[in-house]
Amino acid sequence: MTNTDSFIAEVSEEVRRDRLFALFKRYGWIGIVLVLLIVGAAGFREWNRSQHQLAAELFGDGLRTAIAESVDGELSGGFSDLDASGDRKALIAFSRSAVLAETDREEAAQILLALTQDDDVSSVYRDLASLKVIWIQANDLPVDELLKRLVPLEAPGAPFRLLAHETRAHALIREGQYNEAAAILNRIIEETAVPQDLRERIALLLTTIEDRADDEATS
Predict the structure, then answer these.
(1) What is the pTM of this model?
(2) How many angstroms separate the CA atoms of 44 and 55, rounded?
(3) What is the pLDDT of residues 52-104, one digit of tens each?
């Protein structure tokens, strides 16, 4: 009985092996293809990531070169050689505007105004462009117009809401509306996630308001 059981077990094992071998011959290629696809996908992702990183580095180098070559408000021709697709267009516009800001404020503002209307650019860059236009034109705009332009930038959840509030406070200080400006600045400080540099600016502005109010009260 022992020999018979051993023989049957060996035969069963051979049958299983034959079946597995037959299955592998028939379907094994599927596993090989899956492995190749996984390895190929991983390799492609790594290659694609490295290509994006290289493109970003080349763009950054080109942008820095174009800025460095722009002298006395004259824009370097290097700006036109840069890849202006997507949000890179915004970075180019901000850089060009910054170069022109000291010598041709109107042209600097026009560059940013065009950016605010460009739907190919992310909304966060359009909002920043809108705020920068206000900063550039602040001394030329009537206060009512300036405050009106700030309204959409101060909406809850707006990315530059605190900076827009700070800009409003500056405009009110310019008009001598110290109490209103102080109220806005104090609300900013009460925010839970205010950057340290903004807190320092707000503290300085509040001190300025107190000094001006005292001066006017004694004059």
Answers:
(1) 0.74
(2) 16
(3) 787 778 888 888 888 888 877 788 888 888 888 888 999 999 999 998 888 89
